[in-house]
Each structure stands twice: as structure tokens, then as C-alpha cells.
Amino acid sequence: MLFGLYHSPVGPTAESLLGKIVKAIERLRRTGLTIDLGARDKIQTFDVHVQLIVGDFPARSKFNSLSGHAGYFACSRCLINGVRCKAHQHILYTWLEYRTKCPVEHTNENMNISFDLIETSRKTIRPNGAIVKSPLCSILSIQKQSVFDYFHTCLKVHLPVLISKWVKLLSKVDLNKADIYLSGILYPHSFNRHPKKLSMFDQWKASQMRTFFLYVSLPLLIHLGKCLPSAVAAHFSLFYI
Predict the structure, then answer these.
(1) What is the pLDDT of residues 102-140, one digit of tens each?
(2) 92 three-state secondary structure
């Protein structure tokens, strides 16, 4: 079921993107969704509940109306400030900062306080990373129901970390063995991008990571045999499942 489609050379605001959709969902939550099932006297009304919204980092920043992942207070779960990297001029969120500062949970209460500050301020401010009140606030909890997408979180964040550890554990001979194995795989014509060399994994796109993860990773571990510690293979199989 398609609720909306946006096409424009200019990026939308959260209100222009989701405002009418949220109002339609609110109406469906009140009245239910009535469907004609095609048979005689088979008109049925279904209750409508909002479970979650999912998107990559730029999309989550857009529809949540919070700072992007490159800005301060980018986390929607807690109030961690972030530290500016002087070398690359972006914001880092380190485990050391999280462990030492123990940031408080990002709640609806402190979000509402931030929205009140924005409305009463004469200047453009972003308290706790809030830009403006998102339309989504009326139908879900941004902290609990705005979730990270699997595609980028697993394939562009977690999986490269695992592969980097594999590469460090493999000898040059074993790494070359893995490269030859990957280069020799024949893929269906529908696979546009192929993971060719494990030694060049840092240049793979997310689609290549997905192909590697879903179709190649476990056969490769079996092919490498004892080149990697058994604990590494066992832990990865749990992530794979």
C-alpha cells in the first residue's frame, strides 16, 4: 500500500514529506481500515497500528527532524554530545565518551522540552539535536520506533569491521587464496556488482557486502578451513543466522 511518493529537485521538509501521510494514518487509527473482500457481505474493518519506521541515517535525520549523523547529538536513543574530529571536521561518537559520560536516555519528555525551547527562541537553535517537531511524534515514539535499517547498519558498519579482523588474522598466502576463491565465482546475470577480492573489501559497495554476506561468506569460511580460528567462524555464523 503506497501512502505517498515525493519527487522534486529540492529536498522536502519532514512536514511536506510526511504531514499528509501522518494525518491519513491518524484517521485510519480512529476509524479502522475497511476493505471489501469481494464476497457477499464480506466487508471487513481492520484496526490500524503503527509499528515502526525505518530508514538509513540521512532519511532518519529527515523524518525524525533531528541532527544528522555528522552533527552533534545525532543519536536518537541517548543524549551523547559527540566530539569534533579536528582532522576531518566531522563529529565522532566514541565508546570512551559513552562510557565516561554515561549519557541519559533520549525521552519524549526531554524532546518536548527541546521543542518548547525552539518555539520560544528568537535564534535558530538545535537543543539536544532537535531541529523542529516531526509529524511522526503524533503517531509513534521516535526513540523506540524509529529503527536503523538492516542494509546499512549490518552491511556497511558491522560487516566491514568483521572482515577487517579476518584480513588481519590471515597470512598473505591465505588472503590470496580467498581472493582467488572470490574471483572464480560465477554469478547470475541479475547480480550487477560482485565482491571480487577480500583484500579490497574496503572498496565494496553495500550491494557487494550484501552478496558476500548472504551467498559467499560461509562457503568462504569453509574453503579457508583452519586459516581462521574456529571461534571466529562460530561467532560469524551466529551473526549470519
Answers:
(1) 999 988 888 899 999 998 988 888 899 999 999 999 999
(2) strand
Amino acid in the structure at residue 181: Y
> CA torsion 153→157→162→163, rounded to 10°?
120
Residue 170 Cα distances to 100, 106, 162, 201, angstroms? 34, 41, 13, 14
Task: Please calculate the CA angle 154-149-49 and round it to the nearest 5 degrees.
Answer: 140
Q: Are strands 53-55 and 90-92 parallel, antiparallel or unpaired?
A: unpaired
Any idea what DSSP says for residue 105?
B
pLDDT for position 140: 92
- Please work out, in degrees rounded to the nearest 5, the angle formed at the alpha carbon of residue 102 by the alpha carbons of 110 and 162: 110
Which residues, in sequence order, are bridge partners of residue 146? 53
Please classify residue 163 by burial: count the beta carbons closer than 10 Å to its beta carbon, then call 0-12 exposed, 13-18 middle and 19+ buried: buried
Rounded to whole angstroms, how far apart are CA atoms 23 and 162?
43
Report the C-alpha gap between 166 and 139 in whole angstroms: 43
Q: What is the mean pLDDT of the chain?
A: 89
The pTM score is 0.68
Q: What percent of the chain has pLDDT over 90?
A: 45
Set of cell numbers at residue 93: 561518537
| Chain segment 81-94, per-residue pLDDT in tens | 999 988 877 899 98
Distance of alpha carbon 222 from alpha carbon 80, whole angstroms:
41
Q: Are 51 and 146 in contact (CB under 8 A)?
A: no
